[in-house]
Amino acid sequence: MRYGPGMRGPIEHDDFYEGIARQVVEQRSLRRLSQRELADLCGTTQSAIARFESGSRPPKLDTLLRIAAALDCELDVTFRPRTRPTKESR
């Protein structure tokens, strides 16, 4: 975990990208696509898809948009306030 500039808490980016990778694998599997077929559909390489799905390299936003389009899915990014523990739960 690391801290962003001016932030009081950690950036949980590993969990974030792992969650996205799981969704991509699930959607790809539902469509019975291989990594190579997905790569061909979104204009990248099979090894790039494999690295992303394994968590070894997070994709850029434009790559996520191409993957979503290839899977006929919407990419949804939401900013929400963090939940903070109440005094009673500390």
Automatic annotation (TrEMBL):
* Entry-linked InterPro entries: Cro/C1-type_HTH, Lambda_DNA-bd_dom_sf, TransReg_Diox_bact_type
What sequence ranges are listed for the domain HTH cro/C1-type? 24-79
Keyword hit for Transcription regulation:
yes
**Keywords, comma-separated and alphabetical:** DNA-binding, Transcription, Transcription regulation
One annotated GO molecular function is: DNA binding
Give the record's GO CC terms.
Answer: cytosol
Nucleus among the record's keywords?
no
| Protein name, entry field | Helix-turn-helix
Originating species: Aeromicrobium choanae
At the highest ranks, the source species' classification is:
Bacteria, Bacillati, Actinomycetota, Actinomycetes, Propionibacteriales
